[in-house]
TrEMBL record:
It is found in: Cytoplasm. InterPro entries: AB_hydrolase_1, AB_hydrolase_fold, HAT_MetX-like. The lineage of its organism: Bacteria, Pseudomonadati, Pseudomonadota, Gammaproteobacteria, Pseudomonadales. Its EC number is 2.3.1.46. This is Homoserine O-succinyltransferase. PANTHER family: HOMOSERINE O-ACETYLTRANSFERASE.
Length: 379
């Protein structure tokens, strides 16, 4: 009996692994002589190759953005609420490309891949990757797929930084840039959160200076703590209060310093446990460093408007009222710089109680605004 998926789902999808043999020079001064990228595509590329949309993922994201890998998969891709027939990124109209970035741990070349020079996993020897490096590798991906110009490059959080970098590095290769819940650079507080997460991993005795894979260990405790710290910052105080309040797992206090008594404690431990079983510790370090290093205006003495003056795309910038990790003020910096550079930009700050994670959720006002913008894009 054929599988039955929702009418607005892209249905069954299969990842593709693409090999690139041309060396890729990196901002850190090193290069990858060859590498692989894992991607998924949804919809059909038109004869003019003018309807392609690139999806850039956030810190813990990957190529599986929509649909299902099997009839038994319980949860669809991470952005299924926004990608599919009739959804904001409408696969009846667009050819959508989603990838796992270099340095990732979901199939693309990264720290858990074998280093051809040693025959062992790269581990901590994998080169540091920047947002600009990712965009350069994505441009090669576009060449491979026969896409000279993206109809739009879209991303949330760290993905929004990549979309913004696309408009600077390859201004003629995208017509629209959609930057959601993002920032032109991290604040000192954000860098501090990332450093706490990294230290949780680095101080785990099972990390072994990044060689844990060779030794058959996993820095599980460090990964759990890193994820717990991060997850707290992705939710607003109101969202956590509404979801958990001060509910306890039992009616009485245990008066035990080591027990899990509150529902929020149980939730964070579950999130940490689940994350530590599927994510690579060295990838986490790489991704947070890429976040920290992102500052395209540094090349122009901090002048973001001057940096964005080369852009040719139209822009859509979205933020969320209770997002304190990437606050609306940071999106407004981007908008103000674009206006100063005389670029076409629309901006909406969406009233949503869910915090930073709101960009992943099917919030009606958000989906309505996102859809309205994407419907304007001519293919």
């Amino acid at each position: 009996m054929p599988a039955v998926f929702p009418a607005d789902s892209v249905g069954l999808v299969s990842p593709q692994r693409l090999a690139f043999q041309q060396p890729l020079a990196l901002a850190c001064g090193r290069q990858l002589d060859s590498y692989e990228l894992v991607i998924e595509t949804y919809g059909q590329l038109n004869s003019q190759a003018s309807n392609a949309v690139l999806i850039c993922h956030a810190l813990s994201g990957h190529h599986h953005a929509a649909g299902y890998h099997s009839v038994d998969e319980r949860k669809p891709g991470w952005w299924d609420s926004c990608i599919g027939p009739g959804k904001p990124i409408d696969t009846n109209k667009f050819f959508v490309v989603s990838l796992n970035n270099l340095g990732g741990c979901n199939g693309s070349t990264g720290p858990s891949s074998l280093n051809p020079a040693t025959g062992k996993p790269y581990g901590a020897d994998f080169p540091v990757i920047t947002v600009e490096d990712w965009v350069n590798s994505q441009a090669r991906l576009a060449d491979h797929l026969g896409i000279h110009q993206w109809a739009a490059v879209v991303g949330g959080s760290l993905g929004g930084m990549q979309a913004l970098q696309w408009s600077i590095s390859y201004p003629e290769r995208l017509r629209h840039c959609v930057c959601i819940a993002s920032a032109p650079k991290l604040s000192a507080q954000n860098i501090a959160f990332n450093e706490v997460a990294r230290q949780a991993i680095l101080s785990d005795p099972d990390y072994h200076e990044g060689r844990f894979q060779e030794l058959g260990t996993i820095p599980k405790r460090g990964l759990m703590l890193a994820r717990m710290v991060g997850h707290i910052t992705y939710l607003s105080d109101d969202a956590m209060g509404e979801k958990f309040g001060r509910e306890r797992k039992s009616a009485t206090h245990n008066y035990d310093l080591h027990s899990v008594e509150f529902q929020v404690e149980s939730y964070l431990r579950y999130q940490g446990e689940e994350f530590s079983g599927r994510f690579d510790a060295n990838t986490y370090l790489l991704m947070t460093k890429a976040l920290d290093y992102f500052d395209p205006a540094a090349a122009h003495e901090g002048d973001l408007a001057r940096t964005l003056s080369v852009a040719q795309a139209d822009f859509c910038v979205l933020s969320f009222t209770t997002d304190w990790r990437f606050s609306p003020a940071r999106s407004q910096e981007i908008v103000n710089a674009l206006m100063a550079a005389k670029k076409n930009v629309c901006y909406l700050d969406i009233d949503a109680p869910q915090g930073h994670d709101a960009f992943l959720l099917p919030i009606p006002r958000y989906l309505q605004a996102f859809s309205a913008y994407m419907q304007r894009i001519e293919v």
